[in-house]
Amino acid sequence: MELWYTEQHTDNVRFSIKVDKPLYTGQSEFQRIDVFHSKEFGTFFTLDGLMMVTEKDEFIYHDMIVHVPMATNLNTKNVLVIGAGDGGTVRELTRYNSIEQIDMVEIDKMVVEVCREYLPQTACKLNDPRVKLYFEDGLKFVRSKENAYDLIIVDSTDPFGPGEGLFTKEFYGNCFKALKENGILVNQHESPYYAEYAKSMQRAHKRVKEFFPVCRVYQAHIPTYPSGHWLFGFASKIYDPVKDLNEQAWNRLGIKTKYYNTDIHKGCFALPTYVKELLGSE
Ligand code: SAM
């Protein structure tokens, strides 16, 4: 009998992947964790029935959430990562020798344990000596931080369940305070395509804008996320992500990426008209 993983993207749309082997199912204090293996996407893991990471397309998300802010400020030394339990974001950050400290705050220890076992491709750099893991709620963690980080990356689940607090005004205000005067905040911004996701994206964008003078949105194509069209928020105290891109300096680093390059960097901030309208209308 054929086994399919099916995810409900909207009331009227479902997305399915043929599974050749279920690998793990568990319930943590916060969420249900499943790991499957498939021919098309390799190993993938889901939280509460929602796709998080697949071996085949994770490079797109992790390249875009890390290299866009890094190429904008190559002097980034202190980074805070919130969520990101699969380790893919940390893996990309560790490729920069200039980074001195990476604090990663993941609410669910079990996600990290499961990914260490089943997704070594993404979890492979969590033992880097610059990485300090905190198993806490990111919303609470940032409350006590002031002028501490050059970059905060919010690699969270969607704005419900444990991830809800990471889309609030309180959280964005505390991120602003936790960042140094040159600070950058990048967060996953949901999809503009389906109305329900678009609403979350508009809300997040509006809230970030209340604190940060520079507030932009960029896009990437991620086949396994709802609609495949995914957005990231870029907010900063001083840097413009396109004007301040250190194109030559970044290329001189020789970091080999599969999705990101400096042409993509310049192009990804060019948004379709309907997305511009969604952002402008809030
Ligand atoms: N790339 C993924 C996506 O957008 O679908 C996100 C990957 S990562 C696995 C998301 C992580 O955020 C999860 O492991 C979850 O446990 C964590 N998380 C959710 N809420 C959190 C919170 N309040 N504080 C810290 N981590 C949180």
UniProtKB/TrEMBL annotation:
One of its GO terms (cellular component) is cytosol. Spermidine binds at residues 62, 86, 155-158. Pathway: Amine and polyamine biosynthesis; spermidine biosynthesis; spermidine from putrescine: step 1/1. GO terms for biological process: spermidine biosynthetic process. Keywords: Polyamine biosynthesis, Spermidine biosynthesis, Transferase. The active site is at residue 155. Its EC number is 2.5.1.16. Residues 2-237 form the PABS domain. Pfam families: Spermine_synt_N (PF17284), Spermine_synth (PF01564). S-methyl-5'-thioadenosine binds at residues 31, 106, 137-138, 162. CDD domains: AdoMet_MTases. One of its GO terms (molecular function) is spermidine synthase activity. It catalyses: S-adenosyl 3-(methylsulfanyl)propylamine + putrescine = S-methyl-5'-thioadenosine + spermidine + H(+). Catalyzes the irreversible transfer of a propylamine group from the amino donor S-adenosylmethioninamine (decarboxy-AdoMet) to putrescine (1,4-diaminobutane) to yield spermidine. HAMAP family: Spermidine_synth. NCBIfam families: PRK00811.1, speE. Homodimer or homotetramer. This is Polyamine aminopropyltransferase. It comes from Desulfosporosinus acididurans.
